[in-house]
Design goal:
This protein is α+β, with helices and mostly antiparallel strands. It contains 27 helices and 17 strands. It folds into 3 domains: 198 residues, Aldehyde Ferredoxin Oxidoreductase,  A, domain 1 (4-Layer Sandwich); 191 residues, Aldehyde Ferredoxin Oxidoreductase Protein, subunit A, domain 2, CATH 1.10.569.10; 173 residues, Aldehyde Ferredoxin Oxidoreductase Protein, subunit A, domain 3. It has a 6-stranded mixed sheet with strand order 2-1-6-3-4-5. The protein has a 6-stranded mixed sheet with strand order 8-7-12-9-10-11. It has a 3-stranded antiparallel sheet with strand order 13-14-15. The chain is globular and about 60 Å long.
């Protein structure tokens, strides 16, 4: 049908080596759209409660959405959906580039993978057909070499490859899935799920295309909205010229830039790792994903010095902050090298920067020694030691074997007060916005469905970067609910995070591509439905109010300088926001959706499958 969907799902059982194709459940598609929402529905229905994320029983999915592969701007992303081995929650992790559209052009809306292969394999998909291939020659290779070798073996120069590196093979819980060399579905440990199934990669090549109901009407609309809503939109002006690195200076000025394992919100070396440093010292050219009118990406390469030859896309703000100031690193060149190593090893650079910052903190406090680090002098700012850490983590060497399982687990194993220094929620390391200078972010992190996240709600935009009051609780719960509702639709289409798309425009795109009449109210209900569906999944896995919590440092360690001097998150304020937040969602005081709420959203059947929901 000409509705943006291919209408087909590819199913792969790695244990039996059986591959089948089935029709997409169109009733679910109308309820949840695609991407996050539709993937969540399939995962909820197919995954038994309490499954070990690294067991063959976990379900691994790659999802697109109805807009992916069309000319709707900024819709090139795909989602890796599974149960997270890092957090134990629902996981949806996204990457841009070209893989998502290629999967659609190969004839599938999604790939659903179960079981475990007897030996390392990769999945090859081309124009509606698929086969499981031996990966013995690429197992152990980094992600760059993996892409090259698979293209050579398949004979397809333009094949797109989503793969893992040594980190995923060694079941690091902070391992991601890498495509187009530098595009990473990084958060939550999806790479470890690949590795647990002996799955090195999924490679695709497609020439089948995507159909919409009326191309004569759709094409002019898409072009007009690309020009007016993206290219000429003042909200995207900084994105077009600088990308996310501009946030380094914004966070530094607001004194919320994570510095030396969150011990400060200001970094004296910020000018060595900000947007200006990137543009003047390592930027080679701008870079765009498939069908992108913003081109926010940067191709960076080090031309001289100790890290000469290192190259990567970005680094984006989260990497610059968590791998830069958080580790006391003042040089953009060293961060480029660290980021490239994360890409090659298949590590989430955000979590990698967080665990290395923690290790540096523990080393300086004498909790870790050179015996633990393999002889490395792991002090804050020591570039020589720092750039060796991604490989050490990915290959589980020395202290890297502990850090590979994330900051929360590492601190618990190390002991000696290490747990008090960890900044995480549900086991996921914080993104790079200190909530001691944006109390709304404390709530956003605590209530995120996949662990600490800035891509569900971003109240820091007004709290610290705008004209709002960073420390008042007023309106923060409502802001989080609004953002989470919108992004639950946004990640279901799947739009790029850089597109500040609103409900009205999403509705126009949805109707133009699928033919389904939609307006803002229609999509808002889908957003609330999808957020509640994922919440029900997490409740079924045992999560409740006790898990929507705040790390000790944010409450007990005030920031030392700048605009945030003396500031910490007050427990009473946090609990007040959390209670208000639950009420706005229609949940009880333990964060459990009420049956009435789910029934009103068309999820009554889901409520019956979660014992905790009354």
């Amino acid at each position: 049908m000409a509705d943006g969907y291919t209408g087909k799902i590819l199913r792969v059982d790695l244990t039996s080596e059986k591959i089948t194709t089935e029709n997409l459940n169109k009733d679910w598609a109308k309820l949840h759209i695609g991407g996050k929402g539709l993937g969540a529905r399939y995962l909820f229905e197919e995954l038994k409660p309490g499954v070990d994320p690294l067991s063959p029983d976990n379900v691994l999915m790659i999802w697109t959405g109805p807009l992916v592969g069309t000319m709707v701007p900024l819709t090139s992303r795909y989602a890796v959906i599974t149960k997270s081995p890092l957090t134990g929650t629902f996981l949806d992790s996204y990457a841009g580039g070209y893989f998502g559209p290629e999967l659609k052009y190969a004839g599938f809306d999604a790939v659903i993978i179960k079981g475990k292969a007897k030996k390392p394999v990769y999945l090859w998909i081309k124009d509606g057909k698929a086969e499981i291939r031996d990966a013995k020659n690429i197992w152990g290779k980094d992600t760059y070499d993996t892409e090259v070798l698979i293209r050579k073996e398949t004979g397809e120069k333009y094949a797109r490859v989503a793969c893992i590196g040594p980190a995923g093979e060694n079941l690091s819980l902070i391992a991601g899935v890498t495509s187009d060399l530098t595009r990473n579905a990084g958060r939550g440990g999806g790479g470890a799920v690949f590795g647990s199934k002996n799955l090195k990669a999924v490679a695709v090549r497609g020439t089948l295309g995507v159909e919409v109901p009326n191309m004569d009407k759709f094409l002019p609309m898409a072009k007009e909205m690309l020009l007016k809503d993206v290219v000429e939109n003042p909200d995207h002006a900084g994105s077009i010229t600088d990308g996310t690195p501009i946030i380094v200076d914004m966070s530094q000025n607001a004194a919320i830039l994570p510095t030396r394992n969150w011990s400060s919100g200001e970094f004296e070396g910020s000018t060595g790792m900000n947007s200006e440093a990137l543009k003047t010292r390592v930027l080679v050219r701008r870079k765009a994903c498939f069908d992108c009118g913003i081109a926010c990406g940067s191709w960076a390469k080090v031309s001289k010095g100790a890290h000469r030859g290192a190259a990567t896309e970005g680094p984006e703000y989260e990497t610059l902050a968590l791998c830069g100031s958080n580790c006391g690193i003042t040089n953009i060149e060293a961060i480029v090298k660290f980021a490239e190593e994360c890409d090659r090893q298949g590590l989430d650079s955000m979590s990698a920067g967080a665990v290395v910052g923690l290790a540096m903190d523990l080393y300086e406090k004498g909790v870790l020694t050179k015996k633990d680090t393999g002889g490395l002098d792991l002090k804050f700012g020591n570039e020589d030691a720092y750039v060796k850490m991604p490989a050490m983590i990915a290959r589980r060497q020395h202290v890297g074997g502990i850090l590979a399982d994330g900051a929360k687990r590492a601190a618990k194993k190390i002991g000696k007060g290490a747990e008090k220094l960890v900044v995480e929620s549900k086991g996921s390391e914080y993104p790079a916005y200190d909530p001691r200078g944006s109390i709304g972010m404390a709530l956003a992190y605590a209530t995120s469905d996949r662990g600490a996240d800035h891509n569900r709600a971003w109240p820091v935009a007004t709290d610290a970067y705008g004209s709002g009051d960073p420390w008042t609780t007023e309106g923060k719960a409502a802001t989080c609910v609004e953002d989470q509702t919108r992004t639950s639709v946004k990640w279901s289409f799947i739009f790029c995070d850089f597109y500040a798309v609103n409900f009205g425009n999403m509705a126009k795109y949805y109707t133009a591509v699928t033919g389904v009449p939609a307006d803002e109210a229609y999509l808002r209900k889908i957003g609330r439905r999808n957020w509640n569906l994922v919440k029900a999944f997490n409740v079924r896995e045992g999560f409740s109010r006790k898990d929507d919590n705040l790390p000790e440092r944010m409450e007990k360690d005030p920031l030392p300088s700048g605009k945030t001097k003396g500031k910490a998150v007050q427990r009473a304020d946090f609990e007040k926001m959390l209670t208000e937040y639950y009420k706005l969602w229609g949940w009880n005081d333990q964060g459990i959706p009420l049956r009435k709420t789910l029934e009103e959203l068309g999820l009554g059947d889901i409520a019956k499958k979660v014992p905790a929901i009354k």
